[in-house]
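Margin note from the TA: students keep mixing up input and output lines. Inputs are the sequences; the output is the structure of the whole complex. Example:
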Amino acid sequence: MRNKMRSNKTLSNLWFYVFAGGVGFLIVIPLYWMIITALKTQTAIFTYPIEWFPKEFTLQNFVDLFARFPFGKVLRNSAIVSVSYSVISIVTCSMAAFAFAKIPFRGSEALLKVYLATLMIPFQSTLIPLFMLFNSAGLSNTYGSVIIPSLFRVFGIFLLVQHMRTIPDDYIDAARIDGASYFTILWKVILPLSLPIIAGYAVITFMDAWNDYLWPLVMLTKPEMMTVPVALGMVNGQFERNFGVQMAGSLISIVPVVLIYLAAQSKMKDGLTLGGIKG
Amino acid sequence: MRKNRNNHALAASVFLAPSMVGFLLIAAIPFALSFAISFTSWSGIKGLEIFSPSFWQSNFIGLENYSKILKSKEFWVSLLHVGQYMVLYIPLMLVSSLGIAVLLNKPRKGTAFFRLLFYIPVLTSWVAGAIIWKWVLDPQYGILNDILARVGIAGPAWLQDPKWAMFGIVLASVWKDMGFYGLIFLGGLKNINPIYYEAAHLDGAGRFQSFLKITLPMLTPMVFFVLIISLINSFMLFPQVMIMTEAGPAGATQVIVERIYKYGFSYYKMGYASALSWLLFVIVFLFTFLQQKLQKKWVNYDA
């Protein structure tokens, strides 16, 4: 009996590795293809039949990318934009969520409903007037144009409201009796208790900002102001068949997000499933 | 007491001020404006003119944009393309992400590694993902057709063939999204009480049977949730199309957001593009509404 169970277990483990390996292979192939192409010479890229294992490695594609496009500046832009976006969004979302969850005011429920209702408006539906407003305000080709939308992230507000509601009111009442202001309560009591959620939210928000395309695409038209995805799109158009340069750029764009994700993974509680609530 | 409530309202308004500014600036005002602009023949990018009354007198054209759009073949074709995308993408995505979730559900050696592996495409930007796939799908020098050739299949020209271009986009999208939805399903699986499986096991149910009779029904709320999100997201199909095919070949991958972008930012027909974007909103809204109604009928909430 025990023997049979053990062999069953081995068999199920075997199936796991076969399936996981198969799916993993499908996932990895494009990534592998990107990496080896970025490191291949021009001639090797257009060799038929294709080279699965490059005979010769070169960094020329990376050199070309930075020489023909202000890609260093682009990486800096993305870093500035994504960090500011995440920080501002965390501040505004936690402030709003605190008001909804812990300050009893008339119309709280109704206002939260109005906020949540905006989740039903696709961003694409407001694209044109939003562009027109920002463009008229002289915000084209500024960091501000892509950072300002961080003021209103319903996803973050919702997430934090849900969490803050689980924090017992006793904490707040105790602090109030000690004469603490709402700001002190938020800063000293609520935020420390929300850190795992905020960490998860920060990673997701950074990722969203780093990877965002449509809005930066319409606001940032000068190469030296572009964020990474917009620049990659432009490289894709300009160097149509230069796949070495394109893969080099793609590779560089992926590395920071994966590193941040890895670093934060242990700190955020179920951050992955947290992303699932996003509409 | 009265004073207390006023104090609360004051405090709340301070805390809500930043998000309120954002709400008005990013959501409410643009949403209303987009509705208003959709009734004009406005074509321009210097926006402030729309705040003068004379602008509305000279540009107002009533429902003309809408009737033009609804009569144009292009609009229906772009919806048809979204439909083609959904029909291919959603089943493939559901099956592969459920597969991933079931795979990762039991803790084994290597689970953490595979979890990260499946998540890397999710971390990748859409632009990078699309660029990579454009190269993967290259008919002659791409790796996919090379793999197919090794098993004796002559691969199609993918993005250069109107019949295969959308399928190429679907492959890229499934690759990009299956880890994301897979981990959502994984969360659902972890919530199923093991007692059900034990009971089924005692009753002699096989593993596949338990999957059909326990796992799937218990997962319906999640499957439903993923279905709504992916349906709605399908209407937003954009970066893939922009990067991989530029809506080609021969317009075979024209989709609605891409049309909005084209009319707005290449032709500067802001009125027409706004009408398109309002139709997009209406469609998405209808889907959300419909799903909410259906939800009550076939979702199991006892999981």
